[in-house]
Design brief:
A hairpin with a 4-residue loop joins strand 5 (103-106) and strand 6 (111-113). Helix 3 (140-158) crosses helix 10. The protein is of the alpha+beta class. Helices cover 31% and strands 22% of the residues. It has an 8-stranded mixed β-sheet, covered by helices on one side. A 4-stranded antiparallel β-sheet has the order 12-13-11-14. Strands 4-7-17 form a 3-stranded antiparallel β-sheet. The structure holds zinc ion. Zinc ion binds next to helix 3. The active site is at 80, 175 (proton acceptor).
């Protein structure tokens, strides 16, 4: 267990925050620091064909140790951390034999990680937790995934009696800014299927995610002195208000769960002459997703018709762009890849928790690029902030799951 802790800490103490405002890949030069470190480590533990390309995508191979044909499978995770919270100078704290009580992350700033608020903590009573010092995120998302993949490969190398096919390892930059899969060379990776090790709680296994689109709606207006505005002024902010009111009021993130989709207004910026409204559209169901996008256009058309005479041209311009799709469509035809993961979990004593992701993963993009890619837990909780933590036991179990998947895939 100490070995896995040391490995994890050697990753999280390297700052790899990504940056959505950058156009380069990786988006930040500092991601190379960990990328180069990982390349050396992969070589050092004995993996072959260790490569890093000009965009810092890392790939490596563990060759098959059986004579019969076995599908090539891959394990993928990302080494960047979210720009939502600082990842510089991470100082992890290790809490052994967690007693189920409040954890003081930072006494000076009175930052407490409490099971009263984060009930999940109680699942890990008696275990070893790694937390932050309250001033940074931890980076278990997704350096826990990297730790598990490297540890599993090392274990397989040291235990040649465990039979497996060819295994590929893939580490990406920039997942947190939605670009982890963009420059991932699926052909070069050469796998029949893969798993991202990027879920949260122990047992999580996910192969369904949202269909996602973003909409930008621009409202025009006409500014006139308010004292003389009757019949003349058009206030674009009020048009935006009208638009928002025409959306189903209960279909918002704060009132939906499981398979319920939503519209989420996340930006509104306006003056009388022009207002820009930005929202995202999410739904697991493809038809409902299309219907949601259609509703945006229907409302826009209605407003345009209403003001056609007075304004003379379209007063409301709706631009809707697809962002990613539900991987279920790509995973269902090869459902055995989910079943193998499920079986692997059960064989190492974990109860699988299969549920739809209310978001996207790199795996969804990879699935549409031809690499079906469900998501498996990496073990961390409270991603993207100072309350992030990971139980070491969960990382150990995830490592065992990887080893077991390799083994099950090679069974005749
Ligand atoms: Zn992640």
């Amino acid at each position: 267990m100490q070995h896995i802790i040391d490995r994890f800490i050697s990753y999280v103490t390297v700052d790899t925050e990504s940056d959505p405002n950058s156009n380069t890949t990786p988006s930040t030069a500092k991601q190379w620091d960990l990328a180069n470190q990982l390349v050396e480590e992969l070589k050092q533990i004995g993996l072959q064909e260790v490569t890093i390309d000009e965009n810092a995508y890392i790939m490596a191979t563990l060759p098959s140790n059986v004579d019969h044909e076995v599908p090539t499978i891959g394990f993928v995770s990302h080494f960047d951390t979210t720009p939502d919270f600082t990842g510089a100078n991470v100082t992890p704290q290790i809490i052994e034999n967690y007693d189920g009580k409040d954890i003081v992350l930072n006494a000076a700033q009175n930052i407490i990680l409490s099971p009263t608020y984060f009930e999940d903590l109680l699942l890990y009573k008696g275990q070893t937790l790694i937390t932050t010092d309250g001033t940074t995120l931890l980076g278990a998302d997704d350096k826990a995934g990297i730790t598990e993949i490297v540890s599993a490969m090392e274990y397989l190398i040291q235990h040649p009696e465990i039979k497996h096919g060819k295994i590929r390892v893939g580490f990406t930059p920039d997942e947190e800014i939605g670009r982890g899969a963009h420059k991932f060379d699926v052909e070069k990776f050469g796998c029949d299927w893969a798993y991202t090790m990027d879920g949260s709680q122990i047992g999580e296994l996910e192969y369904e995610n949202f269909n996602a689109a973003g909409a930008k709606i621009t409202f025009k207006g006409k500014s006139v002195h308010p004292g003389y505005a009757k019949g003349k002024m058009i206030n674009s902010m009020l048009l935006a208000n009208e638009f928002i009111s025409a959306l189903p009021e209960n279909e918002v993130p704060e009132r939906t769960s499981d398979y319920e989709g939503f519209f989420h207004v996340h930006h509104l910026n306006g003056s009388i002459e022009e207002t820009v409204l930005q929202l995202i559209i999410r739904d697991h169901d493809k038809d409902l997703f299309e219907a949601r996008k259609e509703l945006i256009h229907t409302i826009a058309t209605k407003i345009n018709n209403q003001y056609a005479k007075q304004f003379g041209e379209d007063i409301c311009i709706a631009e809707v762009k697809d962002q990613y799709y539900n991987m279920r469509e790509k995973v269902e035809p090869v459902f055995h890849i989910v079943e193998i993961a499920e079986k692997a979990m059960k064989e190492v004593g974990i109860t699988p928790i299969i549920k739809p992701i209310r978001g996207g993963t790199d795996g969804s993009q990879l699935s549409y690029k031809g690499l079906p890619c469900p998501n498996i837990f990496a073990g961390g909780h409270n991603f993207h902030g100072k309350y992030e933590y990971v139980p070491v036991e969960s990382m150990v179990k995830a490592t065992e799951v990887i080893v077991k998947i390799a083994e099950l895939t090679a069974q005749k």
